[in-house]
């Protein structure tokens, strides 16, 4: 509006006095700071609003060049460039935010517009600078921007800011290295739940302070908080892995030093995953993934330590995880089958005591895979229960077939329960469902578990075993020594059989050592006291089997009988033993 009035004043003919009066009044009363300049950009007049904005009398601005109002060199350059484009190309400057100097308060953020007014002579023009205060708005925007990219609790950059910093660091080229360190406070939930969220927050602030003290200023280092108790460190420069590892170890030591809050001396341990590589070697996604994997391995290895990313180990893990990801499809496509291992009575090896049933995976690319190659992956992917259900169903179906064919000569079937299935609350229902489906008495089934499952605090093994024993199922505990054996009286386990494995069996493979024999005899004697039948697994030769028999072991399985047998092979074996 102001410019329109001014241009009217110039164009009005023959008397432009009223328009000039209107312009003069608006110019004087305008809340926007205005400076009128000569064609060279030298200020010839400034209104009161501009003087107030810059902390001086308007007259003090006369004779100064418009660019000279800029606070820093780049502000001066932007005003000079805008003035040049206006006067030579006729291009007004769009509103631009920059810093002008206040006479007392220093740099001030303002929005400026550079335009021109036509002169008295045709084709002549005079520059006009219009200025509005943007300091509060700019500072508010800066605060909001800071909040958007910084963690409110610790003041560290947040995940968004860290992602941007990582992309910037990897955008370069050359021989520089970049290191990414993921740190996770071990057991932070214990602190938070035990001492309260307020103490937990103070601990996180302490962690942030200690990490900054170690890494800030080292190799262009920056520290960020990514999640509740997760932090990240980014380093860039010319360094070697031992230098980064030394800093990480220093940080872990600093974190372990207690800080005193609310009368409690609190020290924390942390796990760290480290990845180091050339700046130009791959994108941020690969780097982040590698750091996460290294951190996960550090936690798996026992926490309170660091782990360096290993590309070869990662390649092997990728293959394993790919295998785990397709278990569900493999089960649906019929790639799993039962594999059997016969258990014979050592006093009469022609008599089958039981047949152990397990799973084998006929993978289309990797060939035959035993259960120890895929059960751990099934545990991760949640496929243990479906596999266990299938194992129970198929092994009991085979048992029903043997009973129909061989009558009383048919052996019991023994199923080794993986940990996740042994602690499953619905284990009893799963077993009973399959027994009823195949019209089998519970006595035809032996269920084997181990120490890990019995002691799992999150499971219901003891309750499940009590109910299964009441149904008539035969329960078996795999043991490797006296401690395992004593779980039976300690927890009142309704176990009827124990299976020896590991060193106590292996020790008799090549001969008889007095200490090993004494250990075995102690186990056998204690098993008899508990009225348990004792067997062994992993028996490799007939001499070993005979030694075990001589010292009281009743039954055994292993390669001295057969490593494994398919469905048809076990049918032939049962028939041969039955006759």
UniProtKB/TrEMBL annotation:
A Pfam family annotated for this UniProt entry: EAL
Domain (PAS): residue spans on this chain: 19-64
Entries under PANTHER family matching the protein? BIOFILM ARCHITECTURE MAINTENANCE PROTEIN MBAA, DIGUANYLATE CYCLASE DGCP
| Species the sequence originates in | Amycolatopsis decaplanina DSM 44594
Q: Which residues form the EAL domain?
A: 320-578
Report the protein name in the record.
Diguanylate cyclase/phosphodiesterase
* Entries under SMART domains matching the protein: EAL, GGDEF, PAS
GGDEF domain mapped to chain residues? 176-311
């Amino acid at each position: 509006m102001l410019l329109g009035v001014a241009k009217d004043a110039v164009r009005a003919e023959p008397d432009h006095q009223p328009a000039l009066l209107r312009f003069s009044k608006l110019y004087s009363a305008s809340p926007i700071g205005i400076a009128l300049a000569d064609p060279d950009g030298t200020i010839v007049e400034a209104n009161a609003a501009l003087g107030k904005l810059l902390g001086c009398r308007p007259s003090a601005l006369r004779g100064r060049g418009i660019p000279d109002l800029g606070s820093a060199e780049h502000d001066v350059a932007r005003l000079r460039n805008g003035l040049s484009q206006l006067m030579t190309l006729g291009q007004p400057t769009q509103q631009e935010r920059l810093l002008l100097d206040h006479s007392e308060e220093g740099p001030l953020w303002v929005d400026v517009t550079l335009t021109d007014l036509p002169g008295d002579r045709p084709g002549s023009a005079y520059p006009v600078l219009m200025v509005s205060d943007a300091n509060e708005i700019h500072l508010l925007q800066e605060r909001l921007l800071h909040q958007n990219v910084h963690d409110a609790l610790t003041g560290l950059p947040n995940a968004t800011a860290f992602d941007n910093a990582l992309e910037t660091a990897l955008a370069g080229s050359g021989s520089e290295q970049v290191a990414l360190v993921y740190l996770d406070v071990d057991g932070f939930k214990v602190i938070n739940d035990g001492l309260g969220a307020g103490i937990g927050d103070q601990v996180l602030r302490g962690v942030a302070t200690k990490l900054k003290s170690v890494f800030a200023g080292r190799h262009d280092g920056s520290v960020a908080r990514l999640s509740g108790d997760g932090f990240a460190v980014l380093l860039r420069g010319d360094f070697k892995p031992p230098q980064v590892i030394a800093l990480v170890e220093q940080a872990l030591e600093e974190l372990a030093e207690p800080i005193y809050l609310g009368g409690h001396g609190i020290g924390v341990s942390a796990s760290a995953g480290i990845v180091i590589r050339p700046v130009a070697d791959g994108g941020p996604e690969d780097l982040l993934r590698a750091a996460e994997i290294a951190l996960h391995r550090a936690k798996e290895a026992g926490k309170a330590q660091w782990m360096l990313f290993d590309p070869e180990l990662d390649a092997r893990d990728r293959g394993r995880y790919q295998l785990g990801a397709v278990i569900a499809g493999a089960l649906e496509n019929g790639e799993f089958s039962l594999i059997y291992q016969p258990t014979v009575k050592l006093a009469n090896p022609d008599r089958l005591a039981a047949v152990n049933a397990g799973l084998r995976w006929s993978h289309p690319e990797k060939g035959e895979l035993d259960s120890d190659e895929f059960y751990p992956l099934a545990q991760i992917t949640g496929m243990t229960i479906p596999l266990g259900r299938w194992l129970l169903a198929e092994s009991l179906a085979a048992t029903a077939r043997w009973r129909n064919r061989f009558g009383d000569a048919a052996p019991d079937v023994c199923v080794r329960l993986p940990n996740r299935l042994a602690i499953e609350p619905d284990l009893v229902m799963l077993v009973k469902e399959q027994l009823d489906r195949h019209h089998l008495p519970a006595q035809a089934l032996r269920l084997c578990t181990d120490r890990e499952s019995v002691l799992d605090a999150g499971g219901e093994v003891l309750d499940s075993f009590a109910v299964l024993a009441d149904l008539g199922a035969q329960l078996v505990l795999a043991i490797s020594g006296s401690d395992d054996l004593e779980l039976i009286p300690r927890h009142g386990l309704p176990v009827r059989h124990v299976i020896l494995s590991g060193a106590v069996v292996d020790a008799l493979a090549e001969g008889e050592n007095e200490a090993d024999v004494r250990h075995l005899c102690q186990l056998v004697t204690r098993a008899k006291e508990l009225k348990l039948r004792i067997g062994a697994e992993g028996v490799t030769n007939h001499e070993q089997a005979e030694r075990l028999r001589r010292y009281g072991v009743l039954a055994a399985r292993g390669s001295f009988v057969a490593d494994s047998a398919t469905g048809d092979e076990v049918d032939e074996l049962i028939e041969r033993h039955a006759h």
